[in-house]
Structure formats: structure tokens, C-alpha cells
Amino acid sequence: MKKKTRQKMKIAMAIFIIVIFIIGLIPTILYM
């Protein structure tokens, strides 16, 4: 159970970082 929850947390964190990265890139792409 603990290993599965850790994997889910890692996946959730990865998705969160990717979403923030995309949101950060959208304005730069629009201004270009």
C-alpha cells in the first residue's frame, strides 16, 4: 500500500510540475 501511494504522489507531483511549466510557457509563446 505504501509503495503504491508513493508512486501516485510522484505521478501527481510530476503532473503538477508539468502543468505549471506549460502555464509558464503559454505567455512567452503568445508574446513571441
TrEMBL record:
The protein's name: DUF4044 domain-containing protein
Organism field: Clostridium saccharobutylicum
